[in-house]
Amino acid sequence: MTLGTLNMNTTPNIAVLQPRVYFANDFNRIQVWDGIASSIADAGIDRPAAAPGTPSESSGNVTEGTHLIGYYYRDSASPAGDGEGYGYRSNLSDTLSLAVSAGGQKLTFSVGTTGSDIVRSTDPKVDTIVLVMTAVGGTEFFIAAEVANSGVASVEINVSDAVLIVGTSLVSVGDAFSHDKPPLAAQLAMCRGYAFASVYHDARVTIGVTNGSTTVTAGAGTFSTAWAGRLLTVDGGSKSYRIASVASATSLTLAIAYAGSTNATASAVIQTTAPNRVYWSRRYYPESWNIATQAIDVLRDVDDRIVAITEYLGDPWVMGRRTAQRVVFSNDPARADIVTVSGENGVFNARCVVKPDNDTMMAWGSNGVWSVAGGRPAHISKPIDDAWRAILNYDEVDRIHGWYDPEDQEVKWAFCAGTSTTPNRVLVFDTRGRRWRIDLYRIGLNSATIITESTGRIRAAVSDATNGMTYVAGGQTDGVPASDALQGRHVVGSGSTTTATVVTAPLVTGGKGAGMNGLSIYSPDLDETVYISSNTSTTITHGAFSAALTPGQLVYIGSIPVDLQWAWWPGQDQSIEKIPEKVVLYMVPSTVDTRIEVRQHRDFGSSAVNIPVVVGRTFNRGVTRLPDGFAVDMSTSGGYVEIPTGAAPAKVFQIQLTCDDPTGELTILDAGFKSGDKAPGGDGE
């Protein structure tokens, strides 16, 4: 399946109903994929542009007198589309008032392109045209005929009023509710058969404006052609301008001339005039909307704007940056009560909301991660709030996305750290031990979901940000193609330079991700990571190492090394200094050589401390001394390791684990400090 014309500069939100997949990004009209077609398409169907043309008449059964005649388009392959007149459809055309005379009671309409009596739809979803007619002098429409949208040149209406009025009424197949196409929207959620949608509150653009002109220009793909009616405000300006029309993705027209200074590269924001409006569809018809009447404003009594809509326990929840409200209704959302949820429970974006099970919802926002399980939301990320706040790139919070890993029973959120625009840090909550950590990936993670394999096994699937690959959590997680015989662990051959490394085993060169392009390459000997730009079967071209690698050295392609830092441990009471007895690690021993390095930090220090140890001291089997920590050989550890902490007291402590060799499987069960209230004994532990 391809994404068609979906603008990929804005990340879409996705929802599923009956059982189609819908995409909303506030740039394109809502898009839909039926699970079969090769590409997504606009959701909803445009109504016919004009009333039917006047048909030719001949002898037949239509009752003499004046009838109203119209037609609409429908998708008979949509849910319930196998019944006459049913399925996802367009609004009715304008109607033709036709006086049928005696002797001219069979009506024949030509079917074709512009100029025909009945004009075919150009929407590939449409396969049927439905003609409707009233009885003489009546106002209620009944289905009079159906015809294929292609391959047929004419269609006849040849039915008397007596037969017509006992047939299918247009009201009975949903004409009482408008069948407008879905609105332009960014937020999308399905709840109790309704589709709920809202816009995003702004779009930042770089534009060209000219004093005294109504024309605004931009680079390719900047403007949505559906932005007419929105407001444009240039940074530093005091006036907002209404957009009268959008001619193309590079040109729009303002309602009045621009009064500011001419600027070919002005920074501006485009906003909606109704930032907190929520729309909903006809029930069980997510492609039929009445935008004029089926809408409600939320967050009206708080200084916030919608950034997410989700379903939770049968109610739509609308969320801003710091606020959440429930839309509570019985049968009609128009009669809903808006109930504000207690606490400062906002989200960064809609993809920050994760549901590990039917009763639990967790979300990450500027105040931290909060969780609700049927009652009042609780702030649960306090132990790690200082850590993520110190590294989060707040300019890239729209890239944050979360998922649940059912095998590890962990909720995870990928985010951008520092100045990075690639989400390669992952905030992790272990639901079993209720512990937090922050993982580091060398390759950014763009999206994730839950899948069911053919065996019935439920797993998380994650797509990376560089190589265009998707992998299953618990399997390969470094983006290296499965067809690489050595799974990224290669031996350096002769002839390498600082920017080109030769390896002795064949590399993958084809496939969706163009071989190894975009992956990281790590040298343990240099302790340096660079990124691959291209490769042949023997040579990797990459960013510059500080020195050329020599034959026989190892390089690792993919997400190596792995670095884990446990939450700060306050030693039971942060008001005084303590000395824990030792660091304790619990792990599953590896069947092959796999080494991890263990370092300790004290009092929120960014550098690991050097632990003084008595000369000649021996440690657990498989533990050796490093200048700023210890190395553990997991193949000889026996699954349990004790490491000294040193005699210097501190108020808070932290463990850092690093693995720079992916051989085997790295499984850390737990880690922590064994506490004591006095300095350990004379052997230096």
Quick description:
The protein has 685 residues and is mainly beta. Helix content is 2%, strand content 40%.
Describe the model.
- With 685 residues, the chain is mainly beta.
- It folds into five domains: 56-177, no CATH class; 203-271; 284-462, no CATH class; 475-559, Beta Barrel (Elongation Factor Tu (Ef-tu), domain 3); 563-674, no CATH class.
- Helix content is 2%, strand content 40%.
- It contains two helices and 53 strands.
- The chain has a nine-stranded antiparallel β-sheet with strand order 33-34-35-36-46-52-48-50-49, with no helix packed on it. Strands 16-17-20-19-18-21 form a six-stranded antiparallel beta barrel.
- A hairpin with a 2-residue loop joins strand 49 and strand 50 (629-633).
- The longest helix has 7 residues, at 385-391.
- Mean pLDDT is 87; it is low at 677-685.
